[in-house]
């Protein structure tokens, strides 16, 4: 199978230059991507594609460029995770509960990327209502990992990561509630960033855990993440969790790019040691017995590369890392049980065909519309919020959440500039391997959950390969964690690493 035309150029900047020089058109890019999506249907990365809508957007981008009115992403083909509502393309959150739902409006993230000129290729598969770590919880079947189709792509944004890894889209939107951008990016060998909570609007993003959910992009390169994240960010008065300011700066487009450009200029001025003076904290809790040997080796090699680039390693401790799992799996299900209570079969969503009264209609509609993992989390959340258990579980989990955030602040304000470690304790596991053991699945997020509890930003970039039983190559991801509003610097550091390595340039094996 021939790869889409956009893979022949060096990221978004290269594509933009080719479009400006009329070497290629947005319509040609879009059609090429649509052809590739159809050819790789076995990956199950896309839930809804509408060629007519996509090509109309592409032709509009070409017209805007011809008129000298092109936005920074004009003609760039991307796709959206199916938890962002979209006009034209169906929005189901990969659930039977919302099968066939058509939104009358676009999510703010979709709206802003569209205003920048991006062309939508379709909606991407994910774990149902973003609940999962493997993308096996979708009502429409699992996404397959392009590196090894017997493996999971990670979740919940598995469709986003798989589409980018397979070259079907230049970039994709995703969401991260407990690692759902960083973990699938790591398992699929691409790059992804979870920004600081509140910097990207949640308006029009179907809610899972409202105090944890945050949107962000997935792409191959850190520089492409800058191109996508910068227009996504900004205050939104329609979102009660949106921040007006990021420290001393307004929360607005241009903030991330300016910080990235400033950091990059400083790094380049240091010559062969672009990371000189950077203290990278290595949390001992991220390198315990649960870390697989092949992942450890790849991370150790990446850390050696950081030192070669001038960074200084600092041993630190995040002592409450293990507590982040029970705290998260109390808080997130509690918020989910509240958010998903709106799906009652009355206003929208699935309604059971047979029922005797209102209570039975609601009960049957939810039983039929929600998958098992969603039901498990709703029941857990309802339990911990019930009378007599709120103080014992939910309130205690919120106290642990504060302690987890304090651990990060102690490290980042006094001991190191950024924190570096693995994203996942293992490479991608086989399809079906953990479906009967939800606790084992939850443990796969041990290095990512704490950032969501604290609201901090984190980047995942590819840094090597571990062992898989089929072809022996499954990607390993490196996580770089910064303090609040540090997205630009994090992406600058990631870019320095990617300038010195080629892991982000590796592609999955071609299809037969």
* CATH architecture level-2 label: Alpha-Beta Complex
Poorly predicted ranges (pLDDT <50, ≥5 residues)?
none
Q: CATH homologous superfamily?
A: Amidase signature (AS) domain
Provide a count of the helices. Answer: 16
* Spatial separation of the terminal alpha carbons: 8 Å
The CATH topology annotation reads as: Amidase signature (AS) enzymes
Radius of gyration: 22 Å
> Secondary-structure element order, as H and E?
HHEHEHEHEHEEHEEHEHEHHHHEHHEEH
- Please indicate the percent range of residues in DSSP E strands (runs of 2 or more): 5-15%
Structural class, by secondary structure, is alpha/beta
Number of strands: 13
Q: Would you tell me the overall average pLDDT? A: 96
Please give the share of residues in helix.
Answer: 25-40%
Strands of the widest sheet, in order across it, are 1-3-2-4-6-5-12-13-11-9-10
Query: Structurally, how many domains make up the residues?
Result: 1
The main pleated sheet reads as: 11 strands, mixed
Pfam family, one: Amidase
GO biological process, one term: translation
Catalytic activity: L-glutamyl-tRNA(Gln) + L-glutamine + ATP + H2O = L-glutaminyl-tRNA(Gln) + L-glutamate + ADP + phosphate + H(+)
Subunit structure: Heterotrimer of A, B and C subunits.
Structure overview:
With 512 residues, this protein is of the alpha/beta class. It has a single domain (11-324, 394-505), classed as Amidase signature (AS) enzymes. The protein contains 16 helices and 13 strands. An eleven-stranded mixed β-sheet has the order 1-3-2-4-6-5-12-13-11-9-10, with helices on both faces. Strands 7-8 form a two-stranded antiparallel sheet. Strand 9, helix 9 (293-308) and strand 10 (312-316) form a beta-alpha-beta unit. Helix 5 runs parallel beside helix 6 (182-188) and helix 10 (324-339) crosses helix 13 (390-414). The longest helix is centred in the last third of the chain and has 25 residues, at 390-414. The protein starts with 10 loop residues before the first helix and ends in a 12-residue tail after the last helix.
């Amino acid at each position: 199978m021939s790869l889409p035309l956009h893979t022949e150029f060096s990221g978004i900047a290269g594509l933009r230059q080719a479009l400006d020089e009329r070497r290629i058109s947005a319509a040609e890019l879009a059609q090429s991507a649509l052809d590739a999506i159809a050819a790789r249907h076995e990956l199950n990365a896309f839930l809804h594609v509408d060629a007519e809508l996509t090509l109309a957007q592409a032709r509009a981008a070409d017209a805007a460029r011809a008129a000298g009115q092109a936005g920074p992403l004009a003609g760039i083909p991307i796709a959206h995770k199916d938890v962002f509502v979209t006009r034209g393309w169906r929005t189901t959150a990969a659930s039977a509960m919302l099968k066939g739902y058509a939104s009358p409006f676009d999510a703010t993230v979709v709206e802003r990327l569209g205003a920048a000129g991006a062309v939508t290729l379709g909606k991407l598969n994910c774990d149902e209502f973003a609940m999962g770590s493997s993308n096996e919880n979708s009502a429409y079947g699992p996404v397959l990992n392009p590196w090894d189709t017997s493996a999971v792509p990670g979740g919940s944004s598995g469709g986003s990561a798989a589409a980018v890894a397979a070259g079907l889209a230049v970039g994709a939107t995703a969401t991260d509630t407990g690692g759902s951008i960083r973990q699938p990016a790591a398992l699929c060998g691409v790059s992804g960033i979870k920004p600081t909570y509140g910097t990207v609007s949640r308006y029009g993003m179907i809610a899972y855990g409202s105090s944890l959910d945050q949107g962000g992009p997935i792409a191959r390169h850190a520089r492409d993440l800058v191109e996508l994240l910068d227009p996504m960010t900004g205050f939104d008065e329609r979102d009660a969790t949106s921040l007006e300011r990021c420290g001393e700066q307004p929360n607005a487009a241009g903030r991330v790019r300016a910080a990235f450009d400033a950091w990059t200029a400083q790094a380049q001025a240091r010559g062969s040691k672009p990371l000189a003076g950077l203290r990278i904290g290595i949390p001992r809790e991220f390198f315990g017995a649960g870390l697989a040997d092949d992942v450890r080796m790849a991370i150790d090699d990446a850390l050696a590369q950081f030192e070669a680039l001038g960074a200084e390693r600092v041993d630190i401790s995040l002592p409450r890392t293990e507590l982040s799992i029970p705290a998260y799996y109390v808080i997130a299900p509690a918020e989910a049980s509240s958010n998903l209570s709106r799906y009652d079969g009355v206003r929208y969503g699935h309604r059971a065909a047979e029922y005797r009264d209102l209570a039975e209609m609601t009960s049957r509609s939810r039983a039929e519309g929600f998958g098992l993992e969603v039901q498990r989390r709703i029941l857990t959340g309802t339990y911990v919020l019930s009378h007599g258990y709120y103080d014992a579980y939910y309130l205690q989990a919120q106290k642990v959440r504060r302690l987890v955030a304090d651990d990060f602040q102690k490290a980042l304000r006094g001991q190191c500039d950024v924190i570096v470690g693995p994203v996942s304790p293992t490479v991608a596991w086989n399809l079906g391997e953990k479906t009967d053991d939800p606790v084992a699945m939850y443990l796969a997020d041990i290095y990512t959950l704490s950032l969501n509890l604290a609201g901090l930003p984190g980047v995942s970039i590819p840094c090597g390969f571990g062992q898989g039983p089929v072809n022996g190559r499954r990607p390993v991801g490196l996580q770089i964690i910064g303090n609040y509003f540090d997205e630009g610097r994090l992406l600058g550091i990631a870019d320095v690493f990617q300038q010195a390595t080629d892991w982000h340039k590796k592609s999955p094996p071609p299809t037969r």
